[in-house]
Amino acid sequence: MTLLLGTDEAGYGPNLGPLVVGLTAWRIPPDCSPKQIAHRLRGCITDHECLDDPKRVPIADSKQLYQPARGLSILEQAVLAAWYVAGIEVRQAADVWPVFASCAEDIPPWHLTWDHDLPIIPCETPLHHGWRECLGRGLAKGQVSLAKVNARLMQPAEFNRLVQLCGSKGSVLSETTLFLVRDALASLPAELKAEGVLIVCDKHGGRDKYAAILQFVFPDHRLEVLREGRLESAYLLREGDERLEFRFRTNGEELLPTALASMTAKYLRELAMLAFNAFWQLHVPGVRPTAGYPGDATRFRDEIATAQAKLAIPDEQLWRSR
Q1: What does the alpha-carbon distance between residue 225 and residue 193 come to, in Å, rounded to a whole number?
Q2: What CATH number does the domain located at 2-272 have?
Q3: For a disulfide at 8, which of 60, 143, 261, 271, Cβ 3.0-4.6 Å?
Q4: Is the dihedral of CA 280, 283, 284, 288 positive or negative?
Q5: Residue ranges per structural domain of the chain
Q6: How far is it, in rounded angstroms, from Cα 250 to Cα 26?
């Protein structure tokens, strides 16, 4: 079996709320390429064109599954089903945060005061129970397993410190992603990595060159540049018997592991913003919720300024510098 990892982010552009990087790790047969996984699992997964099939779980780029007009329900139920198959079962929103990697000292007050049953969106016909059973059976039939789902939530205070240290938010994204990969690999049994590991990342902004950042995160590995270009940059890292191949792809979400990483990151980002808005609506009744993106984020910050001062919440805990 070959180990295949996928990563993607949510919340790279906003001024408010966390940056979230998601990761999924899959065991696949050695004769199965990353592009073939979706076809191999066609009996239990579908793309964004068929969202309410009770026998197939939609796994696609999160932007295709979640839009404000469509709502959170489909994305949420698909993520909860996949998490369950990976060994993560959460029934309350407050139970989500300890599962995923984040800095305890940077947990903001809105994560400590808000909770909600999961799924957030009540459904007359919950799909996620059936979806997790179908996904479990389909993975077994396809000789594929979902070995790990993880994520890194970076709150504004930590984000601001790292931007100042690294010099750009692009470098922060790359380092956060690769340290998440490194930690995931360290937590997985050696036998899962014996046949080599392929890591597929959605490209980080306009960056085409990743050799320096890879060598920084994996200093003991020997690095070989396979190719660097607009569509894909690829690298091979070796240390002893360990062999890691990294591919940074444009539209990486087209591949199943990266798509589920995208979905995980987006769902966590949306949960975080629900907690954020609930906190401020408690202290500023009537304030309109925000998604945290430039423009509306400024409006929101202005409207909560008086309450922020009374609560003694510093700007760096609230507002991302880049």
Answers
A1: 21
A2: 3.30.420.10
A3: 261
A4: positive
A5: 2-272
A6: 21
Assigned token pair, 33? 């390429």
Give CA angle at 122 (8, 12), nearest 5°. 20
Residue 153 pLDDT? 93
**What is the rounded CA–CA span in Å between residue 217 and residue 230?**
23
According to DSSP, the β-strands at 197-202 and 145-154 are unpaired
Q: How far apart are CA 27 and CA 194, in angstroms?
A: 11
Half-sphere exposure of 29 (CA within 13 A, CB side): 11
Q: State the distance between the two ends of the chain, measured CA to CA, in whole angstroms.
A: 41
Rounded CA-CA distance 16/308 in Å is: 14
| C-beta separation of 55 from 44 below 8 A | yes
pLDDT of residue 101: 62
**Using only C-alpha atoms, what is the Rg of the chain?**
20
pLDDT tens digits, one per residue of 46-64: 876 677 777 889 998 888 8
DSSP 8-state assignment for residue 12: S
For residues 89, 276, 160, 232, the Cα torsion angle rounded to the nearest 10 degrees is 50
Model confidence pLDDT, tens digit, residues 220-250: 999 999 999 999 999 999 998 899 999 999 8
| Model confidence band, residue 126 (pLDDT cutoffs 50, 70, 90) | low
- Residue 11 in 3-state DSSP? coil
Distances (CA, A) of 34 to 2, 6, 22, 252, 318: 10, 10, 18, 11, 39
Q: Write the pLDDT tens digit of every residue in 137-195.
A: 999 999 999 999 999 999 999 999 999 998 889 999 999 999 999 999 999 888 888 88
Q: Is the pLDDT of residue 108 over 80?
A: yes
- The answer to whether the peptide bond before residue 14 is cis (omega within 30 degrees of 0) is no
pLDDT reading at 219 higher than 90: yes
Q: Quick one: tokens of 239?
A: 């240390």
Angle in degrees, 0-180, between the axes of helices 296-311 and 256-283, rounded to the nearest 10: 50
Q: Residue 170 is which amino acid?
A: G
| Nearest partner of 149 among 117, 197, 176, 188, judged by Cα | 188
